[in-house]
Specification:
Elements lengths: L3 E8 L2 E8 L5 H16 L7 H6 L6 E2 L2 H16 L9 H6 L29 E3 L4 E3 L9 H18 L4 E6 L2 E6 L7 E6 L7 E7 L2 E7 L13 E2 L4 E2 L4 E8 L2 H11 L4 H10 L3 E6 L4 E3 L8
Antiparallel strand pairs: 1-2, 2-6, 3-5, 4-5, 6-7, 7-10, 8-9, 10-13, 11-12, 13-14, 14-15
Helix pairs in contact: 1-5, 5-6
């Protein structure tokens, strides 16, 4: 009988839980500490986070951790792969849409004191890995948001395997990262929530390694009813016909970024774009019509 253990905790404004196969003593303490550390580095609600220090120090190379270097690289990569549909340079638009305060604690407020206007994009962000620095141009404000949670899930899964676990599944809100053997030995099973009834699943995805992300256009609304998903072409809340998107990719961070593509293109175009990126998806529009990529069924 395998030793299967679970830990639940809150971080990054969402609920995490991790299921580990044959975890070594102290593994869950290490996993929790990593999640807390990543939140401290990336939260836009903490003025001393590395991300907000970058946002508030335009034009200045800032020394950052390897994890933050990785985050910014993933942001730039997702921007390129998505053709700019995933854009982390939306901090100003997020604040304007009514999301300045944290969901968990409304007293935690984003302070972007260096906000300015420019034509710069995330492509203009400079990474110097030799000196462990990142330089943001004036006018660029990065928001880790969902991609931060996806990357956190990936990094926690990697850490757990490095610390001796035979397998791990990390659930971070709608993002999931898996590695190693599962409790059944036949791949980790992850349910896809029914957009009509959150207590039910419409599919069960089986993953041996990689990531899954589910996002909804109405998942977080401002007091005025605006969506948290920003359309970079207008810098306003997206007006999408897609209600829910689930993407399977080789990492949770990539799956998370590609869910955003689903809300910014016509459904058929979104399906094609996700397939071109080497991922698979299941989408539902507001009439609950179902759309799948060609190979979605291979995972169910």
């Amino acid at each position: 009988m395998r030793n299967i253990q679970r830990i639940d905790f809150n971080a990054m404004g969402t609920e995490f839980f991790c299921v580990a196969i044959e975890p070594e003593p102290g593994l869950f303490d290490n996993v929790y500490a990593l999640a807390v550390d990543l939140e401290a580095q990336w939260s836009r609600f903490k003025p001393t986070s590395e991300l907000m220090e970058l946002n508030n120090s335009p034009g200045v190379p800032r020394l950052v951790s390897p994890a933050t270097i990785r985050l910014v690289k993933e942001m730039k990569n997702a921007y390129e792969i998505s053709g700019g549909l995933f854009d982390p340079n939306v901090l100003g638009a997020v604040l304007d849409a009514g999301f300045a305060s944290s969901k968990g604690d409304p007293s935690d407020v984003t302070v972007w004191s260096a906000r300015s206007e420019s034509e710069c994009t995330v492509e203009d962000v400079e990474i110097d890995e030799n000196n462990s620095t990142v330089t943001l141009p004036y006018g660029v404000g990065l928001d880790a948001g969902g991609i931060g949670k996806g990357l956190a899930a990936d990094l926690i899964a990697i850490r757990a395997i490095e610390l001796g676990a035979m397998g791990i599944a990390v659930f971070a809100g709608g993002d999931v990262a898996v590695r190693g053997i599962s409790d059944t030995g036949e791949g980790w099973e992850v349910g896809v929530q029914d957009p009509k009834d959150p207590t039910k699943f419409v599919d069960t995805v089986r993953l041996s390694m990689g990531g899954l992300a589910t996002s909804g256009s109405d998942g977080w609304l401002s007091k005025s009813g605006q969506s948290h998903i920003i359309d970079p072409s207008t810098m306003k809340s997206a007006q999408s016909s897609v209600l829910q998107a689930t993407v399977v990719a080789h990492a949770a961070v990539h799956a998370e970024a590609l869910t955003k593509v689903s809300f910014l293109l016509p459904v058929e175009d979104a399906i094609l774009r996700i397939e071109e990126a080497g991922a698979q998806a299941l989408l539902f529009d507001r009439e609950f019509n179902r759309y799948e990529t060609t190979d979605w069924k291979k995972y169910t």
